[in-house]
Amino acid sequence: MTAPIGLLGGTFDPIHVGHLRTAIQAKEQLGLSEVRLLPNHIPPHRATPDSAPRHRLAMTRLAAAATPGLTVDERELKRTTPSYTIDTLIELRTELGTRPLCFIMGMDSLCGLDKWHRWHELLDHAHLVVSHRPGWKPELNDTLAGLYQHHGIQDREALHRTPAGHIFLLDNPELEVSSTQIRDCVRRGNNPQYLLPDAVANYIRQQGLYSGSVV
Ligand code: ATP
């Protein structure tokens, strides 16, 4: 079976080292052929100021261009309506046949997984690979603990043997970085350097993102 493909979804507003180190660690630890960064539509309930999809896409492209092994999957932003992860995974499963797919997420996302649309179907189409994140202990509610008990594995090779169905916790250093923190930093007129790639920091400055007005 060919090496698994990784997929890391996010709003990436902006993309930062927490996302990028997670992608690199997953690729290297699990022997993934590539990690596709998947910028999402921002759900309507999210607070402003959020940057426009074209800016989030541009920043994601800049980050991927600077990082070997990372690519950008633009499908969710190209749709005119917000899409659910399950729809994207079903679409990718059709494209990939039986090739393993690892959907990568932070521990905060795993802790809220049972609120996702058709969450119980996600593992039919992909493995879930979870990175540790400061402030988020693997304390799952009963439903998710049951899911982990059933699907959790420690053998990374198992992710290569089946197309989907396992949950794997990455062994990654926790990086205390969030997009919220970077937006706040820029809004206060401070320097976000080293929290994100230089090319992305330059783009934010050139485009005047997060400086108070909604772009
Ligand atoms: P915001 O602060 O705007 O909520 P965020 O920093 O959480 O954004 P997202 O784009 O919402 O970033 O996250 C995309 C994915 O990356 C999620 O699965 C999230 O858990 C994960 N992630 C984000 N930051 C980190 C980090 N520092 N370490 C590990 N995973 C992270």
TrEMBL record:
User: Is Lipoprotein one of the keywords?
Assistant: no
A Pfam family recorded for this sequence? CTP_transf_like
Q: Which residues form the Cytidyltransferase-like domain?
A: 7-183
Q: Which reaction does it catalyse?
A: nicotinate beta-D-ribonucleotide + ATP + H(+) = deamido-NAD(+) + diphosphate
Mention one GO biological process in which this protein takes part, according to its record: NAD+ biosynthetic process
- Matching CDD domains: NMNAT (cd02165)
Q: Does the keyword Nucleotide-binding apply?
A: yes
What is this enzyme's EC?
2.7.7.18
* Alphabetized UniProt keyword annotations: ATP-binding, NAD, Nucleotide-binding, Nucleotidyltransferase, Pyridine nucleotide biosynthesis, Transferase
Q: Which GO terms describe its molecular function?
A: ATP binding; nicotinate-nucleotide adenylyltransferase activity
Q: Which pathway does it serve?
A: Cofactor biosynthesis; NAD(+) biosynthesis; deamido-NAD(+) from nicotinate D-ribonucleotide: step 1/1
At the top level, the lineage of the source is Bacteria
The UniProt entry, under HAMAP family, shows: NaMN_adenylyltr
In which family does this protein belong, per the annotation? Belongs to the NadD family.
Sum up the protein's function in the record's words: Catalyzes the reversible adenylation of nicotinate mononucleotide (NaMN) to nicotinic acid adenine dinucleotide (NaAD).
Name the PANTHER family for this protein: NICOTINATE-NUCLEOTIDE ADENYLYLTRANSFERASE-RELATED, PHOSPHOPANTETHEINE ADENYLYLTRANSFERASE
Tell me the protein's name.
Answer: Probable nicotinate-nucleotide adenylyltransferase
What organism does the record attribute this protein to? Oceanimonas pelagia
Q: What is the lineage of its organism?
A: Bacteria, Pseudomonadati, Pseudomonadota, Gammaproteobacteria, Aeromonadales
